[in-house]
Amino acid sequence: MSDRPGRVPALQQVPPDVVCLPDYAAHARERLDDNAWAYLAGAAADEITLRANRAAWDQLALVPRVLRRLTGGHTRVELLGRTLAHPLLLAPVAYQRLAHPDGELASAHAAAAQGAGFILSAQASVLMEDVAQAVLPEAERGPLWFQLYMQHDRGFTRELVQRAKAAGYEAIVLTVDAPSHGVRDRERRAQLKLPEGVSAVNLAGLPPAPRTQIDRTQSWVFDALMPDAPTWDEIDTLRSHTRLPLLLKGVMHPEDAREAQRQQVAGLIVSNHGGRTLDTAAPTAWVLPRIADAVGDAMPLLVDGGIQRGTDVLKALALGARAVLIGRPYMHALATCGAIGVAHVLRVLRDELEVAMALCGCRTVADAGRELFFEAPW
Q: What are phi and psi of 220, to 5 degrees?
């Protein structure tokens, strides 16, 4: 692979006109070719859910509070037995070397430098062991988790989990909302193809899926693809393969959340895959309070989807999340100026969160509740 898969080399510093997360998008577009941009910025079908995720946070109106004692306030949260400096994690994003030659290594270094959690995608373009070795010695780093797709070869899936544990990852995040690839029109128009040197290196050695013969009376989705899709019956089996905490990513229905609670998973990530699987799926800001009502305080909830402002983070915490994940904004920053940009994204978002907390009278994140909203949307 050439030094840059995109069209313009990455900058060595944050551009002077970038002051917030949305500012990075235009710079990233200048530096990425149509192929990379389609993958990193696109979503499913008409991209309605992609836009709705963002709009839903905007539609929640905060009520400021005044004259409250806020000295000594902080953004610390408890998550899976650890005290984190703030509730920010980098979501799993595949093939990050599409954005920058350093790929996931740059993102992981930036997260560690800012005390943020980092979730490595199963489809990462850097070996999981290399990422872990690079960041585990950092004393002030956030949690390091491994995101997993259930592979058609369940033995290979078990090996991935065991590799993650041996490398030092602290939790497994099973993505459950993508048994089928989304209908991604933007990628098809760009004729998406991974450039030479970019691949899912951690899946090397995965045996090819058996070829299923489908006749015209059968469905490729239901008769060829779904037989390999995971079910609730396999969650307990997966947990038996490792003592690492298991979180489910992609839970959007209260009854699924209750079933996860019955299965005693360690946590849930409320996510619609950034709008990349099912278009017109509900935005996560709408779904989060319903999931919180379904499970109570029994397990930590995290949320992603359209979060790009500190006020968004505060709203998510008020609706029941313990922490939030960001995706596209840090990819835009990675494409623009590498690890420096990703670290800047996290610093800006944390600063904005503190400002929002202060103006809403929240000394700690525990002070954020639904009374912060002018009118509840549910």
A: -60, -40
SS3 content of the chain, % helix, strand, coil (to 5): 45, 10, 45
Average of per-residue pLDDT values in the chain: 94
Nearby residues of 16 by Cβ (< 8 Å), 6 or more positions away:
none
Q: Contact, 118 vs 93, CB < 8 A?
A: no
| 284-295 and 310-318 helices, crossing angle to 10° | 30
Alpha carbon of residue 371 to chain centroid: 27
Report how far residue 170's alpha carbon sits from residue 82's, in angstroms, rounded to the nearest whole number: 11
E strands within the chain? Answer: 77-79, 82-84, 88-90, 117-120, 144-148, 172-175, 246-249, 267-270, 301-303, 323-326
For residue 267, give every residue at least 6 positions away whose Cβ sits within 8 Å of its Cβ, in sequence order, or none: 79, 80, 245, 247, 248, 299, 300, 301, 302, 322
3-class SS at 77? strand
Measured from the Cβ of residue 181, the count of other Cβ atoms closer than 10 Å reads 12
Compute CA 217 distance to the chain's CA centroid, rounded to the nearest angstrom: 38
Give the tens place of pLDDT for each residue, 335-344. 999 999 999 9
Does residue 273 have an active-site annotation?
yes
Whole-prediction pTM value? 0.95
What would the pLDDT profile of 124-168 be if each residue is shown by its tens digit? 999 999 999 999 999 999 999 999 999 989 999 999 999 999 999
246 vs 366: CA distance, rounded Å: 24
For 149-292, where are the E strands, in sequence order? 172-175, 246-249, 267-270
Q: Tell me, what's the pLDDT at 1?
A: 35
Strand residues in 151-286 grouped as ranges (E): 172-175, 246-249, 267-270
Q: By the 8 A CB rule, do 261 and 295 touch?
A: yes
Q: Is 340 helix (H, G, I), strand (E, B) or coil?
A: helix
Choosing from 27, 100, 273, 344, the catalytic residue is: 273
Q: How many CB atoms lie within 10 A of CB 197?
A: 11
- CA proximity to 295, closest of 269, 313, 330: 269
